[in-house]
Automatic annotation (TrEMBL):
The keyword Acyltransferase applies. Keywords: Acyltransferase, Transferase. It comes from Methanosarcina thermophila (strain ATCC 43570 / DSM 1825 / OCM 12 / VKM B-1830 / TM-1). Gene3D superfamilies: 3.40.630.30. This is Acetyltransferase.
Length: 142
């Protein structure tokens, strides 16, 4: 079931974000992600429009939007590969006619995921926080 997040979901959302970030971004030190935990909980997530996918009473993943921008799409590592990311992304597509995001170039799995779901690369930039190259991607509904 996909639903709007509740404040009581924040701790679990941060856990999912952290574990999935460390798993997907081996090219960024885990210590970087650990230093971001409180900002995620106290600043970033509360400022976005969040939707969670709950399965059997447990959060499996979430997507965070600001306008037409996907700021986060994270699935608990133990729940990946089961269509949860696709379900959350499709939910976002029903809410918006256009979507954009940034994905690290070295995160080939995520880049392929977004391409498979109709996103196209529109440019690149260096992330000021990690120094890693990010690919800018966009999707437009038809």
């Amino acid at each position: 079931m996909i639903r709007s997040y509740r404040k009581t979901d924040l701790e679990e959302m941060v856990r999912i974000w952290y574990e999935a970030s460390v798993t997907a971004h081996s090219f960024v030190p885990a210590s970087f992600w650990a230093l971001q935990k409180s900002a995620m909980k106290e600043t970033y997530l509360p400022l976005t429009e969040n939707f969670v996918l709950e399965e059997n009473g447990k959060l499996a993943g979430f997507i965070s939007l600001v306008g037409e921008r996907i700021c986060a799409l994270f699935i608990a590592p133990e729940m990946q590969g089961r269509g949860i990311g696709t379900a959350l992304l499709e939910h976002a597509k029903t809410l918006r006619g256009r979507l954009s995001l940034k994905v690290y170039r070295e995160n080939k799995r995520a880049f392929s995921f977004y391409k498979k779901h109709g996103f196209t690369a529109t440019g690149e930039e260096v992330d000021e926080y990690t120094g890693c190259v990010q690919i800018l991607m966009e999707w437009e509904g038809r």
